[in-house]
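Reply to dn_fold:

You asked what the input looked like. This is it:
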Amino acid sequence: MIQVGPDFERVDRSLVEAYRGTTPATVGHVLHHGFADPAIRPVYRGARLVGSAFTVQIESSDIAGISKAYELVQPGDVLVVASGRDPRFACAGEMSTFKSIRLGLAGLVVDGSVTDALEMETMKFPCFARYITPMVGRRTGENGSVRLPVTVGGVQVNPGDLVLADYNGVVFLNPLEAAQIIDELLEKERKEVELREAFWRERGEPVPVIYG
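and this is what came back:
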């Protein structure tokens, strides 16, 4: 039977919006915990997400937990999936991405495998995973859990943690700690903008669009 934890408080919307103005690398100047194994990478360049963690545990090829999660998620959630010990089977791909977008999910982080990376890129659905594989899991039982703590990329992630991810990696933050450091992060971002603009102005060139 799939274990279902209690519903949880999502990260305050204003805090989520504030974190759109910063990056995991900037968080890395302030904290040295909460960062997932760097082997968990965006499936396409430019993927970026921020939202509340909706935690899922699946058992290798049995993706029953994903199906249960789709019954309970809310818009703005990030599916954070621990996928068991066998990485050969993808727990998400093009068809599930259609559903994720329709449900308003902010993205997907998988300590395991996904498939259909090009399709995700075409739809601009932010996805971060350890592996890409052509083999696809199925709902074959009632194994797994949702809305309970999971370990993803070596980090214990609790339902409702703030998830921030971009090309440099993934970080999971307790919402209280996230609120305590956001002003410092945004100030660092402001100073970096000044230094960046000064550098490119000296060269007589516009600031590259990678900073947009």
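The chain is about 30% helix and 25% strand.
Hope that clears it up.
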